[in-house]
Amino acid sequence: MRPSASRTRKMSNNYNDIPIGIRVLQSFSRQCPRFHARKELCYKMSIFLLTFLAYACYHMSRKPISVVKSVLHGNCSNTQAKLHEAGDCGYAPFDGSDSKTLFGMLDSAFLFSYAIAMFMSGFIAERVSLRYFLSMGMIMTGVFTYLFGLARTSNIHSLSYFIFVQIFAGIFQTTGWPGVVTLVGRWFGKKKRGLIFGIWNSHTSIGNILGTLIAAHYVEKDWALSFVVPGIIIGAAGFLLFLFLVDQPEIVGCYPQHVTQERRNVANESDVDHDEDDDEEQARHTEAFYAQSVYAVQQTDQVSYRPAPTERTPILSRQPSRERPAGHGRPISLVDALYIPGVIEFSLCLFFTKLVSYTFMYWLPLYIQSSSTLGPELSADLSTLFDVGGILGAIAAGYVSDLTGMSATVCTVMLFFASPILLMYQQYGALSVTISVLLLIIVGIFVNGPYALITTSVSAELGQHSSLESNANALATVTAIIDGTGSIGAAVGPLLAGLISSHSWQNVFYMLIVADIIAMLLLMRLVVKECTALRRSANRIRIE
Question: pTM for this structure?
Fold first, then answer.
């Protein structure tokens, strides 16, 4: 006896574990026809907002360390021994002459653990529920952010303690990026992906701004709260995701666009001479066909499933290869992911672009304070303009990428302009607050634009490359490879900045300019390929 569509869908939903909050909302929405008419749109908006909130919180919890550096080590002269003993010149062990080296060690402990764990995180993300994965990661990130601030209230001065906290904070932070990118990739199609991801990626800058403002508010009063407050916020946001995050569209009766089309094709290949009642029965049968397939694939990745054939089953169906519904498949290995065209080039490019971005993220407030007469709070507030420019750059890069379809070229052009603008900021940024504001926004646009485009739209595009046969399970692995490689650069940049800045801030900017030039050169092969394809397309149109 063939199971009904409603019964099969219920089985599938139970297996995927619908969130408690969604179950409650569903019970209230049964009497609301507007919700059922726009169900998919409502769920998409919830995914957009929840993933936006999640990654904004991840970045918010990373930012306090860059603000608190200015009070962990004060500017005391040798004649202020009494003040030094009272602790007004900093917080041990960061109150000595080697403070920049120690800060570099803290940054590296976080970023190297983040980079290494990212590869494993992408591997795990493809094999577990992303709702549990993200919720656990956010709560544990909040715990270790809180523990950093606890050092002050508990009078802990051990460098090993701070490094330990930073290492585990970095490990749990890796749950964020593969999780949120995979969710957005599952729910949103390819249409206007660059613009959608550009707007969505502003969570990075929003999180940096919020983290900076919160930390700056407490930094001169009680720097422990600069960590405690963000830690509590991200933990609460993680619990919110546990209540409301829908892991996959299928578990709430929503289907990706390519699956909907496949169902239509199956229906069209059936007997078209039946009356309207038969057509409705065929539609129900097609829905049951898809639901059964999804349920079977969820139960095991080892066995393919087909429903028992009936008199209405098409002789030649359009099932995807490997007899799996589109959008599903076995998770791929890291080595297989490297064979996807463009993954290596964009990964290496992100290494250098993220190096530049994270050097600004971790050292900009301290640089502004050292090159001007501004205090710690005002320097931190001014540094947020870099992230404001990052929001504009991400949206602009995504929009232009959608229009042209030339992601590598867009990144290369922005990197080309980033180098002279970095030099201009180093030369003229300290002349006045007005000039500094203007240049910081422009620097943020051209530095963060390529970084945002590669980590979002490009990663999602490569994670759903045609060579993968619509295997959505590859998305987390590809995202982890690209962002993990970039995170190694993010770890190297602040470490080098801490060592080089002891001699000259000017040399730090030279390092950043060289990094941008290398990143631009790494994409040249893809740029040539895109330009060649554009020229062929133009010639074909001219001939026609």
Answer: 0.69
